[in-house]
Amino acid sequence: MTVKPLPRPIEILLVEDSPTDVVITREAFEDAKLLNTLHVVEDGVRALEFLRRQGSFSAVPRPDLILLDLNLPRKNGREVLAEIKADPQLKSIPVVILTTSSADEDILSAYDLHANCYVIKPVGFENFFKAVQSIQEFWFSVVALPLEG
């Protein structure tokens, strides 16, 4: 792995089953005019297929960042996070938990599973929009991300 500024569009994987939250997240990233590609999958099984480039995801790029909801169908976010961080090929991808849960046990569990940060989704469009923009600003303006290769 090497660390340097990204010379290409930023690849973001959003794992989210709420269509409303997907729309708000997409709009927040578009509003920032940052060169990025937002890929969306709606459940934990599809997230792992995407990350492992299986089935219909065989040609997808490796994400630079994963935004992961905890409350997902088929395989929850905790299970997905555990599999990502246990996989030598995936564990260096930063994972931001973006969820409605403010439960101490969920926060502790996420960090125990090596989440890179935990963001509680604010209530209301404007506050959620601002939270997504803050995530984007931090991860793509302040942090140096690892590149595959």
Please provide a written account of the structure.
It is built from 5 helices and 7 strands, in the order ββαβαβαβαβαβ. The protein has 149 residues and is α/β, with parallel strands linked by helices. The protein has one domain: Rossmann fold (3-Layer(aba) Sandwich), CATH 3.40.50.2300. The strands form 2 sheets. The chain has a 5-stranded parallel sheet, with helices on both faces. It has a two-stranded antiparallel sheet with strand order 1-7. β4 (65-68), α3 (77-86) and β5 form a beta-alpha-beta unit. α1 (19-31) crosses α5 and α2 runs parallel beside α3 (77-86). It is globular, with a radius of gyration of 14 Å.
Record the SSE blueprint.
Blueprint: E1 2-3, E2 10-15, H1 19-31, E3 36-41, H2 44-51, E4 65-68, H3 77-86, E5 95-99, H4 104-112, E6 117-120, H5 125-142, E7 146-147
Parallel strand pairs: 2-3, 2-4, 4-5, 5-6
Antiparallel strand pairs: 1-7
Helix pairs in contact: 1-5, 2-3
Output the keywords.
Rossmann fold, 7 strands, alpha/beta, five-stranded parallel beta sheet
